[in-house]
Design goal:
single chain; about 400 residues; alpha+beta; Elongation Factor Tu (Ef-tu), domain 3; Threonyl-tRNA Synthetase, Chain A, domain 2; Diaminopimelate Epimerase, Chain A, domain 1; six-stranded antiparallel β-barrel; six-stranded mixed beta sheet; about 35% helix; elongated
């Protein structure tokens, strides 16, 4: 069984040990040591990283009481010096102890139990068994957690015998075993935990709740502690400062200034869309004047270059908004699309006309009797396909 030095001292950064077994695995080389301060992944906390000799420690996991270190390079059996990535370790200590404090306050203030915990690379989350978490409750929860952080309450970890566990007022039940490791935030929380933790709540640093969302009938809280919270505040402060300068407002006025810009942009977009629709209506009226008489109807066939298919479809609909019209429009680029439409009083099935055209020139499509669309035929065939479609309509009009 590997001796877990991180249980004895979470602040231990380097150590001497002996490689007891080494093996080649799919993820790289793996070794076990007689003693280690590398924390293996578990309990919602990622593993430590660092070095063993000259090799990088990529991952650490536990299997049957042994702790396996996944390495970038092989390390032979024998003495070795280990060095953990202290920045990563202390970050995990801040987040994990912050989670204990947050879960304890959520239970005392809201009666909400923590169902699960995940310590991610950028943010951490806890899942609470309550869905009634309003913004004001989140703010109160955040305030109380930070008050306890600033109080500098001692945090300690220790082992207790299994027969003594029922005497403790634990926040959650422990796993079965001869001994249980307890993490205690003095007067605030007692929890069974095998993770690494700081010595005082003051070392957790600022605790910031970033998001609360409904999740599986409860609430998922995303939070940041310590250096993570500072980095998050820093980039947001920089972003707000840049926006404030660009908008010539004070920091606290940025939100309202952005809302005003969004409202102005919506108004401009609406005006531009109104103008575009007017221009399309004028264009449709002009194109109707160019339509070719075929019996009791008038037909217009036209292919467009570099025009959005959606706009051409809209134009076809405007052309047939007057009685007696057949509109055979197409786009050649950026994509080949056919839009065959007719007025409500014209007894043609435009699906059939489209089927005849695509059957002869390629592609496919579908639609309704009064409006069909398709594509897939070669660009070079578009003009010929429209001319042939006109012939089909003429044959049906005679």
């Amino acid at each position: 069984m590997t001796i877990r030095l991180y249980f004895q001292d979470s602040y231990l950064q380097s150590f001497e040990a002996r490689v007891e077994a080494s093996r080649h695995a799919q993820a790289g080389w793996e070794v076990t040591l007689d003693r280690t301060c590398f924390y293996p992944e578990g309990g919602g906390q990622p593993s430590d990283s660092g070095t063993l000799g000259e090799a990088s420690v990529l991952h650490v996991y536990e299997q049957d009481g042994q702790i396996w270190h996944v390495l970038s390079d092989p390390v032979p059996v024998g003495p070795v010096r280990g060095q953990i990535d202290w920045q990563r370790r202390f970050d995990h200590m801040q987040q994990h102890t912050g989670q204990h404090l947050l879960s304890a306050v959520a239970l005392s203030q809201l009666g909400a139990q923590t169902l699960s915990f995940h310590l991610g690379a950028e943010t951490s989350t806890i899942d609470l068994d309550t869905s009634a978490l309003t913004d004001s409750l989140c703010n109160a929860l955040e305030d109380e957690v930070n008050r306890l952080v600033m109080a500098g309450i001692p945090v300690r970890a220790y082992l207790v015998d299994s027969e003594d566990v029922p005497k403790l007022n634990l926040r959650k039940p422990p796993t079965k075993g001869e001994e249980t490791r307890i993490v205690e935030i003095n007067g605030i929380d007692l929890s069974p935990c095998g993770g690494t933790h700081v010595r005082s709540t003051s070392e957790i640093g600022l605790v910031k709740l970033r998001r609360a969302e409904r999740y599986k009938g409860g609430t998922r809280l995303e939070f940041l502690c310590g250096w993570r919270a500072l980095r998050d505040y820093r980039w947001k402060h920089e972003a707000v400062s840049v926006l404030a300068r660009e908008l010539s407002v004070a920091d606290r006025e940025v939100t309202e200034a952005v809302y005003r810009l969004q409202a102005a942009e919506r108004e401009v977009r609406q005006e531009a869309e109104h103008t575009r629709r007017q221009l399309l209506a004028y264009e449709a009226a002009a194109l109707r004047q160019e339509a070719q008489p075929i019996g009791p109807w008038r037909i217009l066939a036209r292919a467009f270059e570099e025009r959005a298919p959606a706009e051409v479809k809209q134009l076809a609909g405007l052309i047939v908004s007057e009685p007696g019209m057949v509109s055979l429009l197409a786009t050649r680029s950026p994509a080949v699309r056919l839009f065959f439409m007719r007025s409500g009083d014209v007894p043609l099935d435009m699906r059939e006309v489209l089927r005849l055209v695509t059957g002869r020139f390629g592609g496919g499509g579908g639609g309704r009797p009064e409006a069909a669309e398709g594509g897939g035929l070669p660009v070079a065939a578009v003009v010929e396909a429209l001319a042939w479609a006109v012939e089909q309509v003429q044959s049906k009009a005679s």
